[in-house]
Amino acid sequence: MSETSQLNYRSLSHSQVLLHPNPKGIIQFIGGFVFGSFPVPAYRYLHQFLFNQGYSLILYRFPLNPFQLNHWQVALDLLKEQYALKVEIVKLLKQEKQPSEILNVYANPANYRWLGHSLGSKYVILLEILSHKPERRIQVLQDALRQEEVNSLVQSINVAEAKKRESEASLRQLLPDALSISQFFIRDQPAVLIAPEVSNTVRFLRSGWRISSSGTRPNQQQTENLIRDSKELFNLTENLHHSGKGLQRE
Questions:
Q1: Beta strands in 54-98 (DSSP E)
Q2: For residues 203 and 100, what is the distance between their CA atoms, to the nearest angstrom?
Q3: Which of 10, 88, 110, 132 is deepest in the core (most CB within 10 A)?
């Protein structure tokens, strides 16, 4: 496949997917402000490259709302969308009479990876932080956030956990012989972050137009503290950034 126009984008749930006929894994992509709200036209050449490498893609839409300052909620909405999409993809492929080995690729959380660009990377980072075991997670959150913020976040986590249980129950009905379905947040799902942005400022493309707010949750300092206290979770994360010499790895 050499022409991007040949890619078969499908709309499922609130996202778009590219389903490879023989996937070696699933890459979940969330882009940056503006571009990430229109992932098909904005990142189509990236999709083409990754699809040609043998990956299926899930393209999450970045919320086109610069005043959405609760980044925890956006991150958890991504997680709930992942749970929903697993079921929708398996249902679709069963209708298309795909073999069980293909269906099991999508049911197994170990086959999923994350790719974030710009502010989209922050949402992946937050999901990684929430992938601590529950006792450690509470400790890390309480060290960085106010108690009322922790309490509100715990309530949102409980909602996401309920969605996970619904998803896993549906998958077990659809694939009773599947060996691996259970998932704990995005633990052990590798991530690549391209030019990650964790500041309190949203920039409009390359212009000087910016929106900055001290009400961003978590703010830049909190995010940096959370990352610093969660180093054991980021050993599978790679950071790509641009420099004068091209794309560099950290």
A1: 56-60
A2: 45
A3: 132
